[in-house]
């Protein structure tokens, strides 16, 4: 799936909001939900934009997969969820270093 489609360029964009990453210094990269591939493993998007309130990270699914390679897969039950999700907690700097572009938000 994806959130934004730009028909003039035939580009699909997935937008992720991860304010909690400012406490953990890791981005939450979901991979499985209810035993099915989800998130980064099922995306149809050409680009992912991760927004944490301090910066906007533009990257691609392949760059994210490169960043999470070798990290431990973890299991979580999110607020309001009844079934676990599996995800990677990827250091923010690793995603930023592999990103296409990072825009800092100045307040």
In short:
This protein has helices at 21-24, 61-68, 92-98; strands at 4-6, 11-17, 26-33, 36-37, 47-51, 55-59, 74-76, 85-91, 101-104. With 107 residues, it is an alpha+beta fold.
> Based on DSSP secondary structure assignment, what is the total number of beta strands?
9
C-alpha Rg, in Å? 14 Å
User: pLDDT below 50 for ≥5 consecutive residues: which ranges?
Assistant: none
Give a short account of the largest sheet. Answer: 5 strands, mixed
Strand order of the largest sheet: 1-2-5-6-9
Number of distinct helices:
3
SS strand fraction? 35-45%
Order of helices and strands: EEHEEEEHEEHE
Per the principal axes of the C-alpha atoms, what is the gross shape? globular
| Class based on secondary structure composition and strand pairing | alpha+beta
Q: Which range best describes the helical content: under 10%, 10-25%, 25-40%, 40-55%, 55-70% or over 70%?
A: 10-25%
- What is the oligomeric state here? single chain
Roughly what is the average pLDDT, rounded to an integer? Answer: 95
* Cα distance spanning the termini: 32 Å
């Amino acid at each position: 799936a994806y959130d934004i489609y730009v028909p003039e360029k035939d580009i699909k964009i997935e937008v992720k909001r991860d304010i909690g990453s400012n406490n953990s210094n890791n981005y939450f990269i979901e991979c499985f939900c209810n035993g099915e591939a989800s998130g980064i493993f099922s995306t149809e998007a050409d680009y992912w934009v991760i927004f944490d309130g301090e910066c906007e990270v533009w990257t691609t699914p392949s760059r994210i997969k490169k960043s999470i390679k070798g990290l431990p897969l973890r299991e979580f039950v999110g607020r309001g969820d009844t079934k676990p999700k599996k995800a990677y907690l990827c250091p923010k700097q690793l995603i930023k270093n592999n990103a296409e572009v990072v825009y800092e938000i100045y307040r």
